[in-house]
Each structure stands twice: as C-alpha cells, then as structure tokens.
Amino acid sequence: MDIKPHIKRVNDYNILYITSGYEKNNAMILLHGIGASSNRWIKVMPLFSNEFYVLAPDIIGFGYSDKPEANYTMEFFTDFLYKFIDSVNLIDRKIILIGSSLGGHIAAEFAIKYPKLISHLILSNSAGVLKHSTPALNDYILAAMYPTIDNAVRAFRSMVSNFSSIDPNYVRDFVNRMMLPNAKYAFLAALMGSKRSNLIDRLHMIKAKTLVIWGKHDKLIPVENAYEFKRIPNVRIEIMNSNHLPFVENPKEFYILVSNFIKEENDNDRS
C-alpha cells in the first residue's frame, strides 16, 4: 500500500500526518518518540496497512508539524491527540494505539484519560517510567540541542543494534528538523513534561488490552523498565532481540507480535 502525506488543521495548528490502507478498516494510530517524526514508522506501516487503516502524525512540536511556544505537558499532548482523532473523523471508532518512547507515554496517558476510545494499546520501549537518565539518552539530547551529522550518528548508534537499519537520509532529516524554529524548545519542553508525569503509580488505571514490546538491548530506556508495566491489569510483555527501535530494526517481527496479539484478544472477546 502507498503511504500518503496529508496536512490537517488541529487546534489552529498545521499537523502533517501520513496514512496507508483502506479507511473502512479498523483504525491504527502510530505515535513516534521525542525528536522523531512519522517517518520513523515507514518500515512497518506497509505491513499493517493490509489489515488496518494506519495513520501516523508528526506529533505537535515535532517533525514538520507546527511547533508552538506551548507548555508541552502530557495533558497538552493528550488533548492534541483527541482533537487529531476528531479531525480525521475517527472519534466514533475504537482505535488501536501504538506508541514508541515518548509516543508510548502519550499513548498510555491517553488510554487512562479516554478508555472508551481505545480497543488495543501497544507500547514500544515506552517513556514514562524511567527514573534516571542514561548515557544514550544524554547523547540523544546533545544531538537534538547541537544538531550535527556527527552528533546525530553517535546518538542513533546508541538506538539500534545494527546502524545499517537507519536510513542515512533519516539522520540528515533529523538534523534539518532540529534546526527548525522552536524545535529545540519543543524537544526540551516535552522532555520535562514527560519527566513531570511519571506513569508508575497510574498504570493500574489502564483498562485497554495492552501489549508491551521492548528491545532487550535498549540503551536509552533499559529493558528492566518494561516490567514496570506489569501494573497494567490486562498486559502482555514481549522482549525482542533489538535496541530502542524494534519496529525499525525488525519490522516484520514487530508486526507479527502486534498482529497476533490483536487477533488473539479479538478471538478471546468472541469466545
């Protein structure tokens, strides 16, 4: 399936998003991590688009969406996501929500706030429970604040087990995006917003059927953090032989885990 770009006005801001698949299918929304963009999902989107209508926004403050001088709290992001869902006419449909890193934190917060909108929640190497920064995260922050090719390469080498899985064009695009007006401000504000809203004591409030996927070799948010999500009542945890971006390093395995999880949970609902 082709991946199509769109721009939508959400809360008076221009939001870029990409889609793939047929609109009549069950909807799936993919949320990227901090400093990333919807392009982070392009390896796995075509796999999902045969079964689902897949949408991946450049979250407000990131990618090529607008970057207002706002307070980037988790409430700000969940409000954005609700209005994005409404703007693409999905507010009356239950959604499969997948989030990576910061996108996972936003997805979890959204599932707590709007439980009736979510059919399945998938969290990949999710932020929201990390107690202390890591050297790899510090390298990534450095690359965002001082966006050079060398800094970006150093940061992305910490995110994947095999650097060849990262498209060189994506590295250059990261540098270009972080030089856009307000990009650094949005990055730091979102980082602080995530730190101020730790999920650990609220994970039990997530009602959605949840799959947690983690890369065993994650250096940004180490794999032991995956087990904090056992506090979710209906959760399954799967560990992949990857780093921080399992859907980039092994998109087929990621797709199979998610697809099987959704099918099994749907079968359980029918039995």
CATH 2nd-level architecture: 3-Layer(aba) Sandwich
Kindly report the average pLDDT value.
95
CATH topology: Rossmann fold
Give the percentage of residues in beta strands: 15-25%
Beta strand count? 8
Task: Please give the structural blueprint.
Layout: E1 4-10, E2 13-20, E3 26-31, H1 45-48, E4 52-57, H2 74-87, E5 95-100, H3 102-113, E6 118-124, H4 135-145, H5 149-157, H6 168-178, H7 183-195, E7 209-215, E8 235-240, H8 246-249, H9 251-270
Parallel strand pairs: 3-4, 3-5, 5-6, 6-7, 7-8
Antiparallel strand pairs: 1-2, 2-4
Helix pairs in contact: 2-3, 4-5, 5-6
Textual characterization of the structure:
By secondary structure, this protein is of the alpha/beta class. The chain has helices at 45-48, 74-87, 102-113, 135-145, 149-157, 168-178, 183-195, 246-249, 251-270, and strands spanning 4-10, 13-20, 26-31, 52-57, 95-100, 118-124, 209-215, 235-240. It has a single domain, classed as Alpha/Beta hydrolase fold, catalytic domain (Rossmann fold, 3-Layer(aba) Sandwich), CATH 3.40.50.1820. α1 (45-48) links the parallel β3 and β4 (52-57). The radius of gyration is 17 Å and the shape is globular.
